[in-house]
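Course assignment 3, question 2. Fill in each field.
Student: A.L.
Task: Predict the tertiary structure for the chain below.
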Amino acid sequence: MRTLINMLRVPNLLIIAFTFFLLRYLVFQPVYTAYSIEPALNSLYFTMMVAATLLIAAAGYISNDYFDIVTDRVNKPLKQYIGKHISAGSALATAILLSLLSTVLAFWLTFALRSWVPAALLTLALTVAWWYAIQLKRSFMWGNIAVACMSAGTIVLAWLIEKQSLQITGEPSKIISGIVAAISIFAFLLSLMREIVKDAEDIEGDKLIECRSLPIVKGIPFTKTFILFLTVLTFLLLVIAQIYLLQFSRIVAVAWLFISVEIPLIYFMAAVKKAHMKSDYHKMSSLIKWIMLGGIATIIASQF
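Answer field:
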């Protein structure tokens, strides 16, 4: 059981579910209430959408581990489960089963809502997850971009399904779309940074399969410069977001972003400059995950 929990990255799945419910109850619902709009997805359908997304993510994690058996022997020998605690065949079968279950939920939602959007978006996400595991992660930057898009897409997914089903327009659509876009851009940039940092951490194992990651193709100095560029860009966009929040007197949200996101980003930039060991990049990767969680929690802070 512990092996399965580790393979499924349960903490990551909980963060995804947490993000979905924050969006529903602290972003969508208040706007719907203010404009007397009935949500398109009731509790059952919303839970189905969340479940389908979590199944896709879980299938992606397991399939990625399945195709990373060789590199994981070098990159993370202590966290390699396939071949040690579970057979490769069982892992692949589990990933396929989870994929099929997510597909069933996706098409069930499509028929229930009478909209092609759930099946199209969820099937696309599943396709990209498998494509990444099989091929994209070995290509130059495309794997990083795919993961970043999936991280941002998780946030966009909920709104696109809701918006299409409701045919919502005007001011309510503008308000929610703006919030979703801001969070998605933040998620994309931080996910991209984290994927590149992980590539720097895993450079030894990635060379075994002739992976064309940024650190391998361009070298560590260029990679660190690019990470710093993304960090500065993220920081500047956060400042713009804070200025916008101040116009609506969201002082708590502004302070939260400064304490939980901007200060850690400054520390992260210092860590990038000093990094030279595998353990340094591992710590940086963990730090970005905490920064992402802090950024998502801004949805809560903005309520005050």
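Instructor remarks: Residues 2-301 form one domain. The mean pLDDT is 90.
Grade: pending
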